[in-house]
Design brief:
Elements (H helix, E strand, L loop, with lengths): L1 H5 L1 H35 L1 H14 L4 H12 L6 H25 L3 H9 L4 H32 L11 H10 L2 H29 L9
Helix pairs in contact: 2-3, 2-5, 2-7, 3-5, 4-5, 5-7, 6-7, 7-9, 8-9
Amino acid sequence: MNWTLDNLDLIWELTLNHARLSVIPIVVSFFLAIPLGWIAMSNPALRTIVITGTSLLYTIPSLPLFVILPAVIGTLVLSDVNLIVALSIYGVAIMARSAADAFASVDDTTLDASTAMGFSSLSRFFRVQLPLAGPVLLAGIRVVSVSTIALVSVGVIIGSRNLGYLFANGKQRGILEEVSVGIIVSLLLALLFDLIIVFIGRKLMPWSQKVTA
C-alpha cells in the first residue's frame, strides 16, 4: 500500500482525466447513433448499409487510427482530441446496432395508433418511438460506456494522461501495485458510470420495468 498512499494525488488526477475523456465519446456516440438507428430501422437496405458500415469501423485498429486522425482532422499528434474522436467512432460502431434494434422493437400497432391519433412524424418519433425504444437504447449505451472506459487506457500510447499511465509505468518499473491500482480504479470507474446511466434511465423512464442495474 506504500505506493498507493504516496501517489494518491496522481491517481486522483488520472482518474478525473480518464472520466473526462470517457464522458464525451459516450455522449457523442449516443446522439449520433440515434438518427443512424432510425434510418436503419426505416429501410431494410439502409439497415444493411448502416449496420455493416458501422461494424467495420470497430475493426479499425486503435493505434493506426490515432496516427491517421491528426492528418484527417488537423490536430496535433499528441492531442486528446484524437483519442476522443477515435473513441466516438468506436462508440457509434457499437451503439448504431443497438439503436436500430431499439427502434425495431417498437410495436407497429402502437405506431399505427399514434398516426391514427394525428401525430406528425416528428411528434411520433419524440413522443412514441424514442420513449418506447428507451430501454434498449439504455442497454446499448451501458455497453458503450464500459467499452469506452476500457479503450481510454490505450490513449497512453499517444501521451494521454489517464489510468493507462499506471499500467504502462507500473510495468516498466516493475511495480505490481501500480498496475493493480490502475485496474481496480478502472473497474470502479466503469461501475460508477454504469450506475449513473441506470439512475438517469430510471429518472427519464419511470414507466419502464426494464431499466435495472
